[in-house]
Task: inverse folding
C-alpha cells in the first residue's frame, strides 16, 4: 500500500482526498486542524449571517467514514524529508491544554494548506482589524456587527451617532463582504428597526490600486463600482494605509478615517507553518515553489496545490492566483495523474483552464466574466455563482447527495429567516 498524506482539507485538499479515495493500492490520510469544512468563498455569507451553516458544513469525521480514508484532527508543525515523516500537533477536544505530537509516515506528501491574510507588517493591523480567513473569524465579524446593531436599537450607541465600517482591500473578498453587509443592513431595517433612517451606519471600501477588483477587467471593475455606489458604499482608491489604531485608519497622504469596525482583506501569504519550514524553496510570501507537475522544487515526493503553492506554468507568466478554481483543477489533475508517478510513469504537466470570475453582489445579483469573453450580470451571474458551489459539492459528495442537499436547502430557506438574528 502506497501511503499518501494530505495536509489541509480546504477546497483543493478535500476534493483531492475524495477522488483519491476511489483508487486502489493506496492508504490515504487527511490532516486538518478543523473538524468541519466550509467552502472559503462563502465566508462573506457566514460573516453576514446569510449562510445556513448546518446545511453547508462538511464534517471530516463523517466524510472520511463515507469515503474510506483516515482523518487526523491536528496541525502540521514539521516535515522531515529524510525520514519521510510529518509531525502533527494533536490538541485534546475536551481540554485544549492537553497536546501531543504524533508522527505520520508518508510515501507521498501533498500540502494543501491554503493561505492567510497578509498584513504587510503595517502597524496596528493585527491588533485592530478583523480578518476573513476562517469560519471562526467570519463568526467574529458577524457577532461584532450584529451586536453593534443591537446597541443602536437599544441606544447604547446613540441614534444620532454614525457607526463606520471600513474594509481594507477591494479584491473579490472585500467587494463580496461589503455587499453582504449591505444586505444585512437592509434586513435589519426590515426587522429590528422601524425604518432604515434609524440605522446610522456607513461603509467604506479602501484599496491602494487605481481601481477595485484590479485582477479583473476594467469593464467589470467599472460595473461593480457603479453597483456599490448605488448601494451607498463609499470607495477610496489609490489610498495606501500606513497604520491603524483603535479609532482611526491613517493614510500615506496624511489623511485619516474614523472607523468603529475595521476588516482587513488586502493580500495573502502562506500559513505560518510554511514560513517556518526549512530547506524548502519559497517565494516572497512563503508559498512553496512547485513545478508544473505540482512537485516541490525541494522534494519530488512532496506536492503542493492551491493557495500555498507558487506554480508558474510558463516562465513569462506570473504564478497562478489564489483562486478556488485553481485549487479544484489542481486537485483533479493530481487525482488523475498521481497514480502514474506511483507506477514510475512520467508525470504530465498541469494546464490551467481559465473559466472566468464571478463576483457576488449580495443574494440576488452578481457580475462576472466567463471564459474571458462573455460578461454576465444580475440574476444569471448569481445563478452561475451558485452553480460553482454546487460543482464543489459534487466533487466532495457526488451528484446524488448534492441533489439531496440542494432540495433540502430549498425547503429550509423558505421556513427559516434568511439572516441569522443572534
Result:
Amino acid at each position: 500500500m502506497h501511503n499518501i498524506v494530505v495536509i489541509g482539507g480546504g477546497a483543493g485538499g478535500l476534493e483531492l482526498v475524495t477522488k483519491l479515495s476511489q483508487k486502489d493500492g493506496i492508504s490515504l490520510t487527511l490532516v486538518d486542524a478543523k473538524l468541519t469544512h466550509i467552502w472559503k468563498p462563502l465566508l462573506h455569507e457566514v460573516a453576514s449571517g446569510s449562510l445556513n451553516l448546518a446545511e453547508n458544513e462538511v464534517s471530516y469525521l463523517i466524510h472520511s467514514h463515507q469515503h474510506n480514508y483516515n482523518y487526523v484532527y491536528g496541525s502540521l508543525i514539521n516535515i522531515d524529508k529524510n525520514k519521510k515523516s510529518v509531525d502533527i500537533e494533536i490538541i485534546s477536544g475536551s481540554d485544549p491544554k492537553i497536546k501531543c505530537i504524533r508522527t505520520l509516515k508518508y510515501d507521498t506528501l501533498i500540502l494543501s494548506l491554503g493561505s492567510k491574510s497578509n498584513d504587510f507588517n503595517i502597524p496596528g493591523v493585527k491588533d485592530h482589524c478583523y480578518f476573513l480567513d476562517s469560519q471562526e473569524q467570519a463568526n467574529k465579524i458577524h457577532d461584532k456587527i450584529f451586536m453593534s446593531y443591537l446597541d443602536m436599537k437599544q441606544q447604547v450607541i446613540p441614534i444620532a451617532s454614525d457607526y463606520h465600517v471600513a474594509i481594507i482591500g477591494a479584491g473579490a473578498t472585500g467587494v463580496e463582504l461589503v455587499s453582504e453587509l449591505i444586505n444585512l443592513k437592509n434586513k435589519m431595517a426590515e426587522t429590528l428597526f422601524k425604518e432604515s433612517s434609524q440605522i446610522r451606519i456607513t461603509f467604506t471600501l479602501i484599496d491602494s490600486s487605481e481601481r477595485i477588483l484590479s485582477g479583473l477587467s476594467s469593464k467589470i471593475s467599472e460595473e461593480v463600482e457603479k453597483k456599490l455606489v448605488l448601494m451607498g458604499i463609499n470607495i477610496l482608491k489609490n489610498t495606501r494605509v500606513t497604520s491603524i489604531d483603535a479609532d482611526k485608519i491613517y493614510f500615506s497622504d496624511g489623511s485619516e478615517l474614523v472607523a468603529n469596525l475595521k476588516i482587513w482583506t488586502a493580500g495573502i501569504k502562506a500559513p505560518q507553518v510554511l514560513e517556518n519550514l526549512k530547506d524548502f524553496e519559497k517565494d516572497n510570501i512563503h508559498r512553496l515553489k512547485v513545478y508544473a507537475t505540482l512537485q516541490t522544487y525541494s522534494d519530488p515526493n512532496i506536492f503542493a496545490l492551491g493557495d500555498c503553492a507558487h506554480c508558474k506554468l510558463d516562465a513569462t507568466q506570473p504564478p497562478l492566483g489564489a483562486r478556488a478554481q485553481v485549487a479544484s483543477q489542481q486537485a483533479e489533475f493530481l487525482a488523475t495523474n498521481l497514480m502514474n508517478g506511483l507506477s514510475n510513469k512520467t508525470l504530465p504537466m498541469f494546464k490551467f483552464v481559465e473559466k472566468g470570475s464571478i463576483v457576488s453582489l449580495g443574494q440576488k445579483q452578481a457580475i462576472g466574466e466567463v471564459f474571458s469573453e462573455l460578461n454576465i450580470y444580475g440574476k444569471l451571474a448569481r445563478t452561475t455563482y451558485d452553480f460553482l458551489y454546487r460543482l464543489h459539492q459534487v466533487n466532495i459528495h457526488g451528484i446524488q447527495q448534492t441533489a439531496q442537499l440542494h432540495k433540502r436547502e430549498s425547503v429550509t430557506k423558505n421556513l427559516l429567516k434568511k439572516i441569522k438574528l443572534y
Remarks:
- The longest strand covers residues 26-32.
- The chain has a mean pLDDT of 89.
